[in-house]
Structure formats: C-alpha cells, structure tokens
Amino acid sequence: MIAPWCGFRGTSQVLGVTSVVLTGFNLHPLCMVLGLVFLQGDAILVYRVFRNEPKRNVKVLHGIIHLLALIIGIIGIVAVFDFHREAKIPDMYSLHSWCGMATLILFCIQWVMGLLFFLFPVASSWLRASYLPVHVFCGLVLLVMAIGSSLLGMTEKLLFSIIRQPYSLFTPEGVLANVLGILLVCFGIVLGYLITREEYRRPPNPEEESLSVHFKTLTEGASPTGP
Amino acid sequence: MIAPWCGFRGTSQVLGVTSVVLTGFNLHPLCMVLGLVFLQGDAILVYRVFRNEPKRNVKVLHGIIHLLALIIGIIGIVAVFDFHREAKIPDMYSLHSWCGMATLILFCIQWVMGLLFFLFPVASSWLRASYLPVHVFCGLVLLVMAIGSSLLGMTEKLLFSIIRQPYSLFTPEGVLANVLGILLVCFGIVLGYLITREEYRRPPNPEEESLSVHFKTLTEGASPTGP
After folding, report:
1. I need a labelling partner for A196 at 20 to 30 A (CA). Which of A159, A173, B194, B213 fits?
2. Closest partner residue to B95 among A89, A99, A151, by Cβ?
3. What pLDDT score was predicted for residue B204?
C-alpha cells in the first residue's frame, strides 16, 4: 500500500503548507494554523512516516514537534491578547476564543501526560497500555478542535470587516478565506484517514515494545530488564 | 465494560437533547442540529446500542434514522434559502454555507452509497468489505463537519446581531450560544469515543456476516447460498 500512502501524505503536506501560506496576513492566525494545525498534524503523522525507524527516536521526534507546535501556539495566543489590549477589545467572549483556549489548554495537558506516560514512564506498563488509545483519540480530537477553532476565527474576522467590505458580495478576500477554510477541512480529513487506517499503522514489534517500556531505565544506563 | 458504556451513552443523549432544545429559536438551526448532528450521531450509535440484535434489523434502523436526518436537514436548508429570498440576502457566500452545503451533499452521497452497498448489495462482498472502513470513516467525518458547520452558523448569527446587542459585552444570548457550541463539541467527542473504542464494537459473528452478504437474496426469498 505504498503508492496510495505516498499520495495521501503528499496531499496532506500540500494542503497544510498552502493553508499556512494563506494565513500569513496576521501573526495570530499564522501561528495557530502553523502550530496547532500543521505541526500538530505532522507530529501525529511521524508514526506513519517513520514506521520502520526505532520507536524511541520517533517518540522523541513526536514530542519535539508537539513542543514546537505548543510554543508557536502560545506566541499566537499572546499576539491576540496584546492586540485586544491595544485596541481595547474584551477578551474571551466569543465561541472562537472559548474553543481555541480549550484546545490550547487540553493540548498542554495532553503533551505533559504524553511526556510522563511515554517518554519518562512514571506509570506502570499496564496503565500506559490503557492510556495509549485515549492519548491517540485525544490527539485526533485536538487536531479537529484546532481546525474548527481556526474556521470560527476566520468567520469572525470576515464578519468584523463587514462594514468595510461586505462578505456577502463575494469579495476576493471572503472567497479566499472560504477556500482556506475548505483546505483546512481537507487537511483534517486526509490526516484523519492516514492516522486511522490499519494498513498504514506501525507494524508491532514485541522486542521493541519491551525495550520501549524500559526506555527510562535504558537512558539511565541500567539493564533493560531492571526495575 | 457495561457501566462506562451506559454512562457515555447517557451523557451523549443528554448533550444531544440539550443542544436540540437550545437551538429551538429558529427553524434552520433546529433542523440542522436535530437532523445532521443529533439524529446522525444516534444513527451511527445504533450499532453500539443494539450490538446483540440481528445485524439486518440494525442496518435497516441505521438507514431509516439517517433518512429521517436527511429529510430534516433538507427542510432546514430550504428554510434558510426561503429566509434569504424574503430578506434579499445573497446565498452561499459564507464559509458556514460552503461547509454546511458540502456536508449535506456528501451526506446524501454517503446515504445512497450505503443503501447500494449494504442494504441492496449490488457490489461484490470483496468490494463491500473494502468499502466498509471508508463508509465508517466518512460517517464520522460527516458528523464532525455537521458540528463544525453548526458552530460556524452560530458565530455568524451572533455577529450579525452585533449592532443590536454587542456579543463582546458577554450578553446572555452570546454566552448561551457559546455554551451550546461547547455542548455540541462535547457531543461530538463522546460520540467519537463510543464509536472508535474497540470494546464497544459489535462482536463479529461469521454466520451472520455470511447471511448479511446474501441479504438481498434472502429478502427475495431465494437460497442464502444462491448467486
């Protein structure tokens, strides 16, 4: 299944990069789409792209890209709070802000939980195995919430400028924003498809799983079979 | 795993019914949330709720609830086109309308494909087995798109009435709409969790699968082993 996989992967990257370029008009949307949509999506995708590389390396890469996504997301949030303060606009009144903030907070929690459970395993292997499907599900939910929040933000932005340029007259700005919205939806669909299809999954490797459980021990130089 | 299943199922129903009640202020949002969110969600859920009932009956119920959802969705779309014509508002210019219309069109295609492949199987059993995961994935995508479109519509509605009642002043109408938006997101998350967890899946039944493939033949009164 290499050919369709490459096609879908390539499509996801074209959709993602185009979306990031189209939001380049302003720091807040640029950071949110680059961080919480494109990088979050690609961080999830590393398990599919590098499915034959050692799992430990892929895990570290997954964590680093997510950290980068989180930092860029926080820069984007700070940018909009600064803009609100200067323009004397109240914060956190809209559905966009509620959904966006919920996404960022849950993203932070997900990242810390992932770090504790999978990179520095403080939990037992039973607890980790139970948490893994929840972590995977929550990751996909967060990607969808980030895309949804972006679309809400774009609708807000378009309707705020309704007095200068009526959105309902099919202005180029409005149509371009709609196209960007559809591209983001398509990015989410392609990513979701790649992530959930069984045939693109990382093949299970019992030996690696066993090593992976003891990653903390390994990095400390002790025996993999140690406590 | 009956106890958490019942809890999640109950939660999904409370969230869904509350969302429908909260949108009762206007025909368009009422129909879209009742049809394409609540009923679509529940139509998907029948495979989990009735997982010990004969598959054929569950399939028919799944198709009927989806048909009801589709009819209610079309009533909702017609209502907003009528409203636009009377108020001389252009159609289909906003991201909400693009996403909403895409959802309805894809929903129709999904319903017809489901009917052809699974209720009146014109496709071979190999083709049906290949299409099933795509059908399941598209169903979940359509539910998410319906929820996303609803949130976009609510943001539009709130910003259109910005001159009468500024949304940014935390008016009760604005806060209530935000709460409805969050309820819809929660409904989607709980549904998504119920649908994707392995332990809530319908247990496989090879005998039933074999009968199911020949459902068309069975309903025509011929032998299940016939062509």
Report:
1. B213
2. A151
3. 76
